[in-house]
Amino acid sequence: MTALITGPTAGIGLAFAELLAAGGEDLVLVARDATRLAAVAERLSSDHGVRAEVLVADLASEAGRATAAERLTRDDAPIDWLVNNAGFGLNAGFLETTIEDEERLLDVLVRAPLRLTHAALPGMVGRGRGRVVTVSSMAGWTPIGTYAAAKAWATTFTEGLAVELAGTGVTATAVCPGFTRSEFHERADMPLRFLPDAVWIEARTVAEEGLRAARAGRTICVPSKRYSAAALAVQATPRPVLRGLARLAPRR
Length: 252
Known about the structure:
two-stranded parallel sheet, Rossmann fold, 15% strand
């Protein structure tokens, strides 16, 4: 079996790649940094004896999305797992960002999972097996910026897929972590050093629980007991209250 993973060079994506490779899955690794991608592929192939194919593609571009989508449609080398993980954040409020940055964010967080999932599903359904895992976020239940809006889309998109895929042998799972130790915040210039250690979870924990949920056919996965409880609390909070709390959050 083969898994295609976007954004696999660090953080949650790398954890997914490591765990799937350790389980004997061949890999197709998709990212824009050819050097880091090749290093990860070589290490995972050497460590676990699996085939690790490299696909250099910028998912913020139409050409990059088309490249990844084409690989997902190949009948001679079918994909059994699609892990939509690639993403990034913007370190500014909506009124401070450029429209180009905002559109690039949506290209990676929304348009790429949409395009890749649409490419993958016909083959998966035809074979009667497959798993689509989309890394969303607890932020999707909050009214804090375009990132949260994109993650809200990812979660709702997955829920809709799960309904439509019922009985096909194919499942869809949204993994909605809280604060996770990775390069994500540093790359966005959001170190968040003021947050206590207790709020952080490890990328491997997110991937482990996400894979467990996907194999069980669960639609929504919030990794860790404390964030599962927090997610229930956030969803039960009236929206006006959440908007009031959002006004207290720093824009950067």
